[in-house]
Design goal:
Length: about 200
């Protein structure tokens, strides 16, 4: 079994298991319930039962932790989107990701929270962007063949629709519209109204 000893030199404070994963999961929980501003390495260390200096061994500081959350977010996001090829279904997956990973969704789209030049984050973000672009390559809003400029406009329109719907969902502004419907199904109906069948 692996152990992580805190870097403060306290030989009596140990955490068994994967401290990095434990701190990341605790951070996501805090962000989901209280928002990113409430995040504190000291509080996360307390929750994990380790010394206040232990999280710094893995993340250096609060920004490093938020960078790790954003990297994980883009990785999970790209994984989810890449499971489908249809543009509308990628939009529905976008909405599902926001609904099931609200803390990740908050952090990934706030570049002021993390180190945007972190190599792991850059790679994860580029992969997610590539998956998004693949969904609209060669399409226009009406589904006909398109040149690169048309595909880019369609991509921005599709992204705006999915992101806007997801943001409205998370801020509870779609409660009346949803009226108990599954958010993904509701998104599909909106996408059909905008882009056609």
């Amino acid at each position: 079994m692996s152990t992580d000893r805190d870097v403060s030199g306290d030989q009596t404070s140990y955490h068994h298991g994967d401290l990095r994963r434990t701190i990341l999961a605790a951070a996501v929980d805090v962000i989901a319930t209280e928002g990113p501003a409430a995040l504190s390495l000291r509080d996360l260390a307390r929750r994990a039962g380790v010394s206040h200096a232990a999280p710094a061994h893995h993340f250096k500081d609060r920004t490093g932790l938020l960078t790790a959350v954003a990297t994980e977010a883009y990785t999970l996001f790209a994984d989810s989107l890449s499971e489908v090829t249809d543009l509308r279904e990628r939009g529905a997956r976008y909405v599902r990701f926001a609904a099931t990973h609200p803390a990740h969704f908050q952090v990934m789209f706030q570049p002021g929270l993390h180190r945007t030049d972190d190599p792991a984050l850059v790679a994860a973000r580029e992969r997610a962007a590539r998956v998004l672009r693949e969904g609209v390559a060669g399409l226009t809003a009406d589904g006909s063949e398109a040149d690169a400029g048309d595909a880019r406009r369609t991509g921005v329109a599709a992204w705006s629709l999915a992101h806007g719907f997801a943001a409205l969902l998370l801020s509870h502004n779609l409660t009346d519209f949803l009226d108990g419907r599954d958010p993904e199904d509701a998104f599909r109906s909106v996408a059909e109204a905008v882009f056609g069948s």
